[in-house]
Amino acid sequence: IFVFQKSKISTYDKMWAFMSSRRQSVLVKSNEEGIQRVLTSDYAFLMESTTIEFVTQRNCNLTQIGGLIDSKGYGVGTPMGSPYRDKITIAILQLQEEGKLHMMKEKWWRGNGCPEEESKEASALGVQNIGGIF
Fold it and tell me: Domain Ionotropic glutamate receptor C-terminal, which positions (predicted)?
């Protein structure tokens, strides 16, 4: 939600205005609640991309529409001056260069394997596409 609240993009501003004016009927308290609403009603849920990939690999009744709305990275936090900082950084870079991070994601994100549909993922959504629903 923070992406929409603080955005300088007019489409995101409009989306936030719509969502905040209908908080009770639109916003949910957790990913689990959002997923349940998708499964049981006429509801679309915006979710962080890594989480939605994980969830859709395990629940064949869900699908991800489009690609990323924005792009975020992940990091590992350590205390200031930690002797582990450089070691962790080097280890992550090495895993990334060797393709092992991708292999681990494939191993742990892939669920039971939903049957492949001809077009499981709809075409990518851009800001203009999703803004139109608001």
Answer: 1-111
* Residue-level pLDDT at 9: 81
Question: Could you give the C-alpha distances from 55 to 51, 64, 66, 88, 110, in angstroms and in order?
Answer: 6, 9, 15, 28, 10
Q: Where are the domains of the chain?
A: 2-72+110-131
Which tens digits make up the pLDDT trace of 110-127? 776 777 665 445 555 555
The CATH number that domain 2-72+110-131 falls under is 3.40.190.10
Could you read off the pLDDT of 38-63 as tens digits, one per residue? 999 998 888 888 888 889 988 999 99
CA-based nearest residue to 67, from 17, 130, 12: 130
For residue 34, give the nearest of 46, 19, 24 by alpha carbon: 46
d(CA 72, CA 5): 16
Residues 6+ apart with CB under 8 A from 97: none
Both structure tokens of 81: 């001056």
pTM equals: 0.64
